[in-house]
Amino acid sequence: MRKHYRNSAAAISVNTNKNTSVTEKSLQSQIVSCLTVLGYTIFETGKARGKTKCTTCGSYSYATGWQGNTLGVPDLYVHNSKWNIPIGVGIELKTKTGAVRKEQAHYASLNVTVICRTLMEVINVMEQIESVVGTDVTRDKIKKFKENEWILQ
Asked: pTM of the full predicted structure?
């Protein structure tokens, strides 16, 4: 079963069937839609590059370092233009059973990123951030979003 939610900015389709597994791609899509509705700007990393061929051995791998993203860089950077400081929240997404790589765990231990496995975890992180640097308007949006049960576990 899917529930659809709409406001003036975007529409959200949330999978409410607890018996189906959610892929990281679909989780990311739901989170990006949800945060967009709440007024955030989202930068998605790691989607632009595919695998590259090694000129030495001929094998294919994803670009890293100077060729692409640094290992452990989070899936999303989230920003709100209402924040009076130029910061972004790094969010690494994982499915309920997805493994966390050592680089991802390292950045999370330094509070550079936060690892989230559900839409509700992301909303709770953003609620914490808004309590420190946010505005009453965005805090109210998040509160209403949660009260109206738009987010189902």
From this structure: 0.75
